[in-house]
């Protein structure tokens, strides 16, 4: 099973991806973790990433795809994966689709966690206080949510047009959201079989 899990900042993607990983036995692939691991490993690809990051630039889509292809080839991803927080825009969605077709690992489902904006701001402000994160103050959160709406929200239409998108209520207790995700994955698997 190959899953893309996406939603706005504060929707619980990372938490839910971790729970799904344990429950389904799939690799959890977070692009942030992937970038940090590549740099730490010091591989040729990791050195490219490090140079870009040290220059204060964003890692290019091409470089990110190289990292993803390398990660998809690892043994723990052979049975499938949960891709957390990627793709972030239509260009990345198209590129990921092309990569997955080329390596013959097509996406099974894209799961979208929907959470009202007021609750997202509240969640992220709470995280800022608990973790001391400066990128989670209310003004910054609203700016991040605006970027999400402009760039990432259209990715839902991309997957919807392919019949791969399932939108879910991301509110409630963590366990409730996990059960909704598992039910959506179960119905996707049943309809595919």
List the helices and strands and how they pair.
Elements: E1 2-6, H1 13-24, E2 27-30, H2 31-41, H3 44-54, H4 61-72, E3 81-84, H5 90-102, E4 109-114, H6 117-131, H7 138-161, E5 165-169, H8 174-192
Parallel strand pairs: 1-3, 1-4, 2-3, 4-5
Helix pairs in contact: 1-8, 2-3, 2-4, 6-7
Characteristic key phrases:
single chain, alpha/beta, 61% helix, globular, Rossmann fold, 193 residues
Report on this model:
Helix content is 61%, strand content 12%. The chain has 193 residues and is an alpha/beta fold. The chain has a single domain (2-188), classed as 3-Layer(aba) Sandwich (Rossmann fold). It has a five-stranded parallel beta sheet with strand order 2-3-1-4-5, with helices on both faces. Helix 1 packs across helix 8, helix 2 (31-41) crosses helix 3 (44-54) and helix 6 (117-131) crosses helix 7 (138-161). The mean pLDDT is 89.
- In terms of DSSP E residues, the strand content is 5-15%
How many DSSP H or I helices? 8
What would you report as the Rg, rounded to the nearest angstrom? 17 Å
What is the annotated CATH architecture?
A: 3-Layer(aba) Sandwich
Class by SSE composition: alpha/beta
Number of strands: 5
Query: And the CATH topology?
Result: Rossmann fold
How would a crystallographer describe the biggest sheet? 5 strands, parallel
Overall geometry: globular
The number of domains: 1
CATH-wise, what's the superfamily? P-loop containing nucleotide triphosphate hydrolases
SSE pattern = EHEHHHEHEHHEH
């Amino acid at each position: 099973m190959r899953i893309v899990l996406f939603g706005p900042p504060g929707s619980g993607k990372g938490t839910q991806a971790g729970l799904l990983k344990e429950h389904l036995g799939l690799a959890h692939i977070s692009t942030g973790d992937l970038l940090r691991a590549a740099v730490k490993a010091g591989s040729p690809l990791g050195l490219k990433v490090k140079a870009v990051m040290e220059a204060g630039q964003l890692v290019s889509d091409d470089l990110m795809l190289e990292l993803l292809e390398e990660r998809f080839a690892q043994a723990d991803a052979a049975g499938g994966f949960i891709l957390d927080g990627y793709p972030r825009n239509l260009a990345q969605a198209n590129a990921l689709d092309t990569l997955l077709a080329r390596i013959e690992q097509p996406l099974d489902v894209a799961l979208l966690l929907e959470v009202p904006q007021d609750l997202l701001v509240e969640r992220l402000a709470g995280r800022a206080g608990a973790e001391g994160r400066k990128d989670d103050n209310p003004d910054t959160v609203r700016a991040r949510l605006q970027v999400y709406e402009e760039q990432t929200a259209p990715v839902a239409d991309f997957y919807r047009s392919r019949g791969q998108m399932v939108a879910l209520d991301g509110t409630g207790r963590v366990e409730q959201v996990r059960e909704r995700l598992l039910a959506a994955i179960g119905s996707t698997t049943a309809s595919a079989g």
